Amino acid sequence: MPEDITQDRSGFATRARIDTTKPHSARFWNYFVGGKDHYKVDREIGDQIKEIFPGLADVAHTSRRFLGRAVRYLAGEQGVRQFLDVGTGLPTADNTHEVAQRVAPDARIVYVDNDPIVLAHANALLAGAPEGRTAYLDADLYDPEAVLRAAAGTLDLSRPVALMILNTLGHVADYEQARDLVRRLMAGLPPGSHLVISDSTATSEGMIAASEAYNSSGAVPYHVRAVDEIAGFFDGLELVKPGVVRVPEWRPDTDDDDTAAAVDAYCGVGRKP
Q1: What is the pLDDT of residues 94-135, one digit of tens each?
Q2: Residue 132 burial by Cβ neighbours in a 10 Å radius (0-12, 13-18, 19+)
């Protein structure tokens, strides 16, 4: 479990900003993927939701594996050397910079979050390969232009960037606002850049019930969407095959044993022409 007192990069205590009386999305997700950075309140709602919808654990694990496959594809097959990971959440195994820098040690990664508990773990994220560069920004998805300005301190925005927004856009209640935020971020990136998205979807009664239970817990709400709404985030981009699909179905590895899992989460990768 996390320590009660943690420090951010500037040396300021973040305890006052961390609310341990309500569930927290990053800690909740960390619990589902087998991490250690969560409190009792997160485990309680997690266990409650497991009773309602055990399949959410599969969503968490398969979404994490999708991240790895997408980053390996971009760094390996497409030669992408810059990654902007917005709404990164808490570090677990195989974070974006670890996957990318195994393929390309000179890759540069910028993580973006404005959450105090994620900020408290920034030092763990910053341990990247010496040939590349890994940075963490305390910035807000709702101000895309500020995110891009800050990211430009580490990334060369005249060269292709992979924009990663995984399991984050569900926190934006209004769908058109969520699309606008994605458009504004992509507008600041050059041709050849890629958009990578995954999110939980309203594709079963169990997932809808799990979302309702989570949202009634006092946590910041997370809204599950229709599959065509996930696809809408890629308007104007060239979808990489196989398109917008369930997360286990996106370019599965030969040893993946979850490709047939009917998880309620969809993903895609699109290229900016």
Answers
A1: 889 999 999 999 999 999 988 777 777 776 666 777 888 999
A2: middle
pTM for the structure as a whole: 0.86
Residue 247 carries which side chain, given as an amino acid letter? V
Check if the beta carbon of residue 91 is closer than 8 Å to that of residue 123.
no
- Burial (CB < 10 A; 0-12, 13-18, 19+), residue 78, is middle
Say how far apart CA 246 and CA 266 lie, in whole Å. Answer: 4
Tell me the C-alpha to C-alpha distance, in Å, between residue 104 and each of 9, 83, 98, 178, 259.
Answer: 26, 12, 10, 31, 27
Cα atoms in the 13 Å half-sphere on the side-chain side of 136: 25
Q: Which is more confident, 251 or 45?
A: 251
Q: Tell me, rounded to whole angstroms, the distance of Cα 20 from its chain centroid.
A: 22
> Tokens in use for 133?
């560069």
Alpha helices in the chain (DSSP H): 25-32, 40-52, 55-72, 96-103, 116-120, 122-125, 144-151, 175-187, 205-215, 227-232
Q: What is the DSSP letter of 84?
A: E
Q: Give the three-class secondary structure for 194.
A: strand
pLDDT tens digits along 153-185: 999 999 999 999 999 999 999 999 999 999 999
Band (252; pLDDT cuts 50, 70, 90): very high
Instruction: Tell me the two tokens of residue 14.
Output: 């973040």
Q: Are 109 and 96 in contact (CB under 8 A)?
A: yes
Q: Is there a contact between 138 and 153 (Cβ–Cβ < 8 Å)?
A: no
